[in-house]
């Protein structure tokens, strides 16, 4: 048995992910020229997307990470825990959050309030995946790779119970794996 056996459909191939990262990177390059933005990846899901995205940004950027978590299995507890905070001040910095997926919206909603309170010059979000069907709180997302329908996806950083992050594509997890 391979990991592929647990996936019913490939939602985004490796090639498609790279082409989305490239077009998002080009837009970000235009919008952030000479602003030296701080790209903040939310661990752990954003690891692969951060790595690919920054290759296509052709202006100076800095990167940092926050570790936040609210999921147990396929369900958000709604309680967003900060496990690791930023290593630096965001005051007067242009902050761009880098996310793998926006689902209920609760993770970013909680973190954006905190970063605005810390007096960032601007705060925007880039996400590879947007799953609007499941939204519980509104989040204003400036850069979206692609929208996906409802269903629990894994791979390319996204997990189910810490597994499947290492798949090089985004796949729909078979319901029998988590039910
Ligand atoms: O919009 P939401 O419903 O809040 O879901 C999105 C968040 O959930 C996942 O993180 P998770 O809490 O599973 O932590 P992880 O990145 O370490 O897997 C994902 O990586 C996003 O950060
Ligand atoms: O569909 C998903 N898959 C993995 N992690 C997630 N976190 C929010 N939604 C998802
Ligand atoms: Mg997770």
UniProtKB/TrEMBL annotation:
GO terms for biological process: GMP salvage; guanine salvage; hypoxanthine metabolic process; IMP salvage; purine ribonucleoside salvage. Residues 12-160 form the Phosphoribosyltransferase domain. Its EC number is 2.4.2.8. It is found in: Cytoplasm. It catalyses: IMP + diphosphate = hypoxanthine + 5-phospho-alpha-D-ribose 1-diphosphate; GMP + diphosphate = guanine + 5-phospho-alpha-D-ribose 1-diphosphate. GO terms for molecular function: guanine phosphoribosyltransferase activity; hypoxanthine phosphoribosyltransferase activity; magnesium ion binding; nucleotide binding. Its cofactor is Mg(2+). Keywords: Cytoplasm, Glycosyltransferase, Magnesium, Metal-binding, Nucleotide-binding, Purine salvage, Transferase. Its main location: cytoplasm. The keyword Glycosyltransferase applies. Pathway: Purine metabolism; GMP biosynthesis via salvage pathway; GMP from guanine: step 1/1; Purine metabolism; IMP biosynthesis via salvage pathway; IMP from hypoxanthine: step 1/1. Purine salvage pathway enzyme that catalyzes the transfer of the ribosyl-5-phosphate group from 5-phospho-alpha-D-ribose 1-diphosphate (PRPP) to the N9 position of the 6-oxopurines hypoxanthine and guanine to form the corresponding ribonucleotides IMP (inosine 5'-monophosphate) and GMP (guanosine 5'-monophosphate), with the release of PPi. Belongs to the purine/pyrimidine phosphoribosyltransferase family. This is Hypoxanthine phosphoribosyltransferase. It comes from Aliicoccus persicus. The lineage of its organism: Bacteria, Bacillati, Bacillota, Bacilli, Bacillales.
């Amino acid at each position: 048995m391979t990991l592929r056996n647990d996936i019913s459909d490939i939602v985004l191939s490796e090639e498609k992910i790279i082409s989305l990262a490239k077009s998002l990177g080009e837009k970000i390059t235009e919008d952030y020229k000479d602003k030296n933005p701080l790209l903040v990846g939310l661990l752990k899901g954003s690891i692969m997307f951060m790595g690919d995205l920054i290759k296509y940004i052709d202006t100076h950027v800095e990167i940092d990470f926050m570790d936040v978590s609210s999921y147990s299995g396929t369900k958000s507890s709604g309680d967003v825990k900060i496990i690791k905070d930023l290593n630096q001040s965001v005051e007067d910095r242009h902050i761009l959050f880098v996310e793998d997926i926006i689902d209920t919206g609760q993770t970013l909603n909680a973190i954006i309030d905190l970063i605005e309170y810390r007096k960032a010059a601007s705060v925007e979000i880039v996400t590879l995946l947007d799953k609007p069907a499941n939204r519980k709180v509104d989040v204003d997302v400036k850069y979206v790779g692609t929208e996906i329908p409802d269903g629990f996806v894994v791979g390319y950083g996204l997990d189910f119970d810490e597994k499947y992050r290492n798949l090089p594509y985004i796949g729909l997890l078979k319901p029998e794996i988590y039910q």
